[in-house]
Amino acid sequence: MNTELEVATIVSNMNPGINATTDSEEVMLLQQALLWMLYDAGHLTKYPMAIGIDQPMYKRM
């Protein structure tokens, strides 16, 4: 079992959509923070697509 890969998959698949036209900024920020924590801990080496979310908000600060 690869728990790190499972967690990375779950976090990257979080859906910030409230409805068809509105996204939750709080969920996007939470997802961003979790993805960077996983990246910094080295848990995204087998799942590099997780950090490739193409949203302006996902740029590391």
UniProtKB/TrEMBL annotation:
Its main location: nucleus. GO terms for biological process: chromatin organization; negative regulation of cell cycle; negative regulation of cell population proliferation; regulation of transcription by RNA polymerase II. InterPro entries: Menin. Keywords: Chromatin regulator, DNA-binding, Nucleus, Phosphoprotein, Repressor, Transcription, Transcription regulation. GO terms for cellular component: chromatin; histone methyltransferase complex. It is found in: Nucleus. It holds the Pfam family Menin. GO terms for molecular function: chromatin binding; transcription cis-regulatory region binding; Y-form DNA binding. This is Menin.
